[in-house]
TrEMBL record:
GO MF assignments: proteasome binding
Organism: Sporormia fimetaria CBS 119925
Segments traversing the membrane: none
Name the record gives this protein: WLM-domain-containing protein
InterPro entries in alphabetical order: WLM_dom (IPR013536)
Length: 340
């Protein structure tokens, strides 16, 4: 009886595990299998062609066909972490199709008919040049005066405020910041002042700590209150009717908030609530601000002197700004007519 002389190790197989797309795959090979055998197995079983195969092997680095040493024995890799990077033939075909579709020439889209240019409302432009706040002035001796200037600019340029100014033909020479230390008692804090029916409007932009600013909606309602004092001084029924009307107009014409008040509720500072001030303030000559010749730059009104301003200075500067704005509006109108 013949005996089997084949060495037992010759019949033993080699198991090799690798990771592909996050999944572990185990292959069996005969003793003596090489890295080239692994490549052929991956091609047949996983449909990853040699052209896309990349084997990342711990301590050996990145190996890919054609291998520098195709006879590398798999028996030396069984304890090493192996990661297969490569796309299947189906994935490569799908990618090629996407590239072809993306780079294929496309039929030109039909040319849309030109939309007529919207006609500019030149009457509105002229009114906005006249009915506005002609000078904006923060307090230069308080910190962050540039931020105060931005608050004043935002109020001046608010669509609702601009519409109300045109409707009621309000032309205010100076909109300025109120010092939080002024007009303050233990019982109340004045939020705004209107001097001489609209020559100057002061707003308490800051909190009592100087470094914080009040809510914009509160500042805007305060401004509506002060604009009503352009017409009525005391807080009588005539004043409150106009104040409520201005507030409604501002909310309605503020296209940025959709013409709706916060929470879709109407709100007005009425005579039964804490008032913003003590009525329209009337007086003779007055001076605003402290010393110094600091200059603050406004985004729309050029440079605004931030030193002392007397009543005469304020009114003279407002007249100059009105003339400048009116001339600019006229020049725009002439350019429009000339180009028509």
């Amino acid at each position: 009886m013949a005996s089997d002389t084949t060495p037992p190790e010759a019949t033993e197989s080699i198991e090799l595990t690798l990771t592909h797309h996050g999944n572990q795959v185990t292959f069996s090979f005969a003793q003596g299998a090489t890295i080239q055998d692994l490549s052929d197995k991956v091609d047949n079983d996983l449909s990853v062609p040699p052209s896309t195969q990349k084997f990342l092997i711990a301590k050996l680095g990145l190996l890919k066909p054609p291998f520098k040493d195709p006879s590398l024995a798999l028996s030396t890799l069984t304890t090493k972490k192996i990661t297969l990077m490569g796309s299947t033939a189906a994935e490569v075909s799908s990618l090629d199709a996407q590239i072809a579709a993306a780079t294929a020439p496309r039929r030109p889209s039909p040319i849309k008919a030109a939309t007529p240019a919207r006609t500019r409302d030149w009457k509105k432009i002229q009114d906005e040049a006249q009915y506005t706040f002609h000078t904006l002035r923060p307090l230069p001796y308080l910190p962050n005066s540039d931020r105060s200037l931005r608050f004043l600019e935002r109020l001046r340029d608010d669509p609702g405020i601009k519409a109300a100014m045109r409707t009621h033909k309000f032309s205010v020479p100076l909109l300025t910041e109120m010092d939080p230390a002024m007009h303050t008692t233990h019982e109340s804090r004045t939020l705004g002042l209107n001097r001489n029916k609209g020559e100057v409007i002061e707003l308490r932009l800051r909190t009592d700590a100087y470094d914080g600013y009040r809510d914009y909606k509160t500042l805007r309602k305060t401004l509506c209150h002060e604009l009503a004092h352009n017409v009525w001084g005391p807080h009588d029924r005539n004043f409150w009717d106009l104040c409520k009307k201005i507030e409604k107009e501002v909310e309605r014409d503020d296209w940025r908030s959709g013409g709706k008040a916060v929470g879709n509720e109407e709100y007005s500072v009425g005579p039964d609530e804490e008032v913003h001030d003590h009525g329209g303030w009337e007086g003779g000559e007055y001076v605003l601000g402290g010393g110094g010749a600091e200059v603050v730059t406004s985004s729309a009104g050029g440079q605004v002197a931030a030193g002392n301003l007397s009543r005469r200075d304020i009114l003279a500067r407002a007249a100059e700004e009105r003339v400048k704005r009116a001339r600019a509006a006229e020049e725009q109108g002439r350019e429009r007519d000339g180009g028509a």
